[in-house]
Amino acid sequence: MKLAVFKNEEELDLAAAKSMIEVINENPEATLGLATGQTPIGLYQKLVQAYQKGQVTFKQVTTYNIDEYVGLEKEHPQSFYHFMKTHLFSHIDLNEVQIHIPNGTASNLEEETERYESLLMKAGQLDIQILSIGLNGHIGFNEPGNTLHAETHVVTLTEDTRKVNSKSFPSLAEVPKKAITMGLGPMMKAKKIIFIAKGEEKAAILKQAFKGPIDPLVPGSLLQLHPNIEVYLDEKAVKYMM
Ligand code: GLP
Fold first, then answer.
1. What pLDDT is attached to residue 93?
2. Which of 65, 83, 100, 145 is the most exposed place for a label (fewest CB within 10 A)?
3. pLDDT of residue 16
4. Is residue 42 in contact with ligand 1, taking CB distance under 6 Å?
5. Is the distance from the beta carbon of residue 132 to the nearest atom of ligand 1 less than 6 Å?
6. What number does the ligand 1 atom closest to the CA of 181 have?
7. Residues 6+ apart with CB under 8 A from 113
């Protein structure tokens, strides 16, 4: 694990974006596993700025988002597709055909998980996988439990997760109860993981994930086993790891 600690989010986001841009400039057809949540917003802003300055093009990349809520239309303001359009996709040279994200309104969710899984299998080893971690240790929507899944699957969100994620919904009641998530397989198979976490609120779970035992009750702990993970933290997030 390569750990880098930053005084502020600006420097952290810039460093993580630089690592991504290097990969894309070396391989313009790079495959990118993308995450949502507050944490990667700054990274996506830096990617947009680099594109606007002509430092990178996304013309030939393919993107695979790790998760999507069940039951929200793509255009729903709280869907992860809408999140990605808002923070990245609408601002760079990326066509719709290059974007892949689970369809949370599929009539047959099991079929949708199979469709998405076969897409990921066809993609093979993703060149980059962006990840952060939930307060309960979830990665994507791989929630704590006695078992973890390698493949794309439908997950019932824990009430903890629904409460934390309700910050971006008008009310808790409107937070979906289920989601479709990439399993840990493609993430662990990725050539490089760019892991980002910020703020004191993540310090405790980061210590568990990176300094604790490998434990399915802390899905993030599996990341200790990845051979090429770059961990970008700010000083508040790293406080229990040193
Ligand atoms: C969300 C997403 C995860 C994300 C995590 C942390 O539920 N499904 O992919 O990493 O929670 O989100 P945040 O970055 O807002 O703390």
1. 98
2. 145
3. 98
4. no
5. yes
6. 8
7. 102, 151, 152, 153, 154, 180
